[in-house]
Design a protein that fits this description.
This protein has a single domain (about 1-75), classed as GMP Synthetase, Chain A, domain 3, CATH 3.30.300. Helix content is about 40%, strand content about 25%. It is built from three helices and three strands, in the order αββααβ. A hairpin with a 2-residue loop joins strand 1 (about 20-25) and strand 2.
Length: about 80
């Protein structure tokens, strides 16, 4: 799942080298924290949060296939 989020984020941003994803697990729950360059925050979040919500939906589906529950947090640099 971490690789999926990295791939999507790197495809969206102007500075793919600044993309980092940290994964935290607690039982069947996974929290992923996505960090991008400050200039790319708007691209990842999107208008009204649409892009971020779409990424979260994809993550949720990937997690359910593995029997997990996942959340995505976009953190500021």
């Amino acid at each position: 799942m971490k690789e999926l989020i990295e791939y999507i984020a790197r495809s969206l941003v102007d500075h793919p080298e600044d993309v980092s994803v940290q994964e935290f697990r607690r039982g069947d729950r996974v929290t992923l924290e996505l960090q991008v360059a400050k200039d790319d925050m708007g691209r990842v979040i999107g208008k009204g949060g649409r892009v971020a919500n779409a990424i979260r939906s994809l993550l949720r589906v990937a997690a359910e296939r593995q029997g997990l529950r996942a959340t995505l947090d976009v953190v500021e640099p």
